[in-house]
Amino acid sequence: MKTNKELIIKGIKYLAYTLVLMFTAPIVLYQAFKNTEHSFYLPVLVVGFILAIGAIAMGFYSIKILMEGIFTSNK
Predict the structure, then answer these.
(1) Averaged over 42-67, what is the pLDDT?
(2) Which of 1, 44, 54, 64 could cross-link to 32 by cystine, CB 3.0-4.6 Å?
(3) End-to-end alpha-carbon separation of the chain, Å?
């Protein structure tokens, strides 16, 4: 059984994007909760939650692509 190297490389790239989102989302959320009196509190909080949801979704998607690359044959 051969692996699909293009899908594995694509999955690793998406894992890199996931890693970036996993670090930026908590930083943005921390900044939002630290500055609750600021006028941009709600927009920064919403952006932080969107980044956090994006990190979770990208994590699942990148793992799915990696599994397809490993377990499907290249015909």
Answers:
(1) 96
(2) 44
(3) 10
